[in-house]
TrEMBL record:
Descriptive protein name: Twin-arginine translocation pathway signal protein
Chain intervals with Polar residues compositional bias: 449-462
Stored PROSITE patterns: TAT
Ranges where the record places region Disordered: 449-472
Native species: Kinneretia aquatilis
Pfam families to which the protein is assigned, alphabetical: PhoX
SUPFAM superfamilies: Calcium-dependent phosphotriesterase (SSF63829)
Amino acid sequence: PVPAGLGFPGIGFESVPASVSVTSAPAAPAVADRITVPAGYTAELFVAWGDPIMPGAVPFASDASNTAAEQAKQFGAHNDGMAFFPFLGTDGRPSVDRGILAINNEYTPEEILTPAGIAGANLAAVRKSQAAHGVSILEARRRNGKWMVVKNSVYGRRLTANTKTRISGPAAGHALMKVNEYLISDTGSHATGRLTDGYTAYGTINNCANGVTPWGTYLTCEENFNGNFGSNTAVPAPTAGEVGKMFNRYGLTKDGFNYKWHTQDPRFDLNVNPNEANLFGWVVEVDPYDPKSVPVKRTALGRFKHESAQYVVDAQGHLAVYMGDDERNEYIYKFVSAGKFNPADRVANRNLLDDGVLYVAKFDADLSGQWLPLLPGTVGVDGVALRDNPNFAGANDAEVLAKILIKTRMAADAVGATMMDRPEWTGARPRIGGFNKIEIYCTLTNNNRRGSSATPSSNKADGTTAAGSARPAVDAANPREDNIYGHIIRWQETGDTVKATTFAWSLFLQAGDTKTTKPAKATNNYKGNIVADPYGSADFGAPDGLWFDPFGRLWVQTDQIGDASGDWKNIGANCMVCADPNTGMARRFLTGPNGCEVTGIAMCPDGKTMWVGVQHPGEDATPSNPELKSRWPANQWGVESDGVTSLPFGRPRSAVVVITKDDGGVIGS
Ligand code: FEO
Ligand code: CA
Ligand code: CA
Ligand code: CA
């Protein structure tokens, strides 16, 4: 049922001229423990953490007592980016009733993942945490007007922290990718048979946002992989040679994010297996139409804390992938393929992401920008070519390139790229309705480590300072000190080719609270410049998810505290807004439940069905009272998503909702 070359987001859709509007009254900004959508729309629960998605799966146990093996056949935890892959309809066109959803499961709420809620308490708990990470691939079908998960579908599949994947591209097989043989069985005994050759990795983790390819595969992006590692002993200091420098630059520490996987599974102990961390932080490609396909880590796209991966094919057939590295003062990248996309031959594109050039962005004050190639011959700001920089030195340029890709952040430091305010999602504006530029947008969600305000002088999430990366001053592209609310930047490629090495950029909008009465600490820090719709509903902050639908509407999802406290008093809950790329006008479309982040969005090819993700409702719930902050989604619909009435409601669950317009129209029309 593979509709080769048809129906994937951004290609093969109806070429409907952009009519950017949400014509209904907007969703309310108030804080409530439920999803709200505008009048005239219906949101229904589609799938939630723990729901069965493949043959042999058992229902979710609302006390979180499902085992790791059960979790490995259920929908994973804390869903994030997603994409819809339609089957071919009987009319030869992409189906709008049946297809596959690939949905990332970024991380796990250790406090409510098991009945005891104690992270890393034993191997069984660690294995469950590992099984809840990764990607959920499921078949979605509309029957009698209602969308549902096909529970026994042969397309149902889970990728977890233990799924075997292939490593490809220039860094595959490099010495830094070779790991120790240490592997344990599920009973804790030493297991053998692990491939350690640098061409194989076990698992994909911290799968944040995503992308698709025009040949119909899914790209899942590994973000905060560092947090899942740790060590029972002190890790090498930043000054302690190559390993210490890399650990420091990628934020690998003794305690990580307190998952404690390393206490049970030495694969994740940084001192037992220092190179294991090098197998994560990649963009991973998987073919959802082939349930037996082996996921592939594409090293040509670089190693960092990948947020999303938006492709563009230009008129000459060249393909670029635009990517953000989500951490304070990190960079924006693009990969440009050496080969051309072949729309007539799906298989011919299979390895297009293995060969090309990775660039990093430099935003200049005059609203121009440069793409700096991360290649052995590129001369750094110190006047030294990367091949002569001790961080990347190797026997030949092939080895130098492998090191550049494994240590991408350090290469970007060396060439003087522009440190950004946490680059999250990238999105490409559709070239329809008379608009024919290659124009890319990127959310810069926030940054409290820029400028001179009195937060710790550091570049790293764990409080250490990365070598060579002092706290930057504000600049034209990141103009706020202590950027609370974030902004969205966009750029157009020179000559409308993805191979351009220069671009023109502008700030699309600065988010904020246009109703603030706070004294002007730094006026635009608070107010922003969002063009409000007539309902005045649009103020938002911390833009994170960003996606253009095929009709030219820009959907923006937020990730802030969400409880209307402090700087968020007038903004309230997290939300999804619809913005007009021509005018900057934004209108709230959806408001999320308590303590959640709204992240992940996909549509049917006809634009009449939309899936939206809700991540971590009731964030930081306690083991003793998991319902303290949220009882969503069971509270909103009165039942768990598998239809089982469950009172009391059980634990809050990350979930995906499906949204339709009551008149059957295009979402947002
Ligand atoms: Fe996983 Fe940067 O959000
Ligand atoms: Ca995000
Ligand atoms: Ca975020
Ligand atoms: Ca969040």
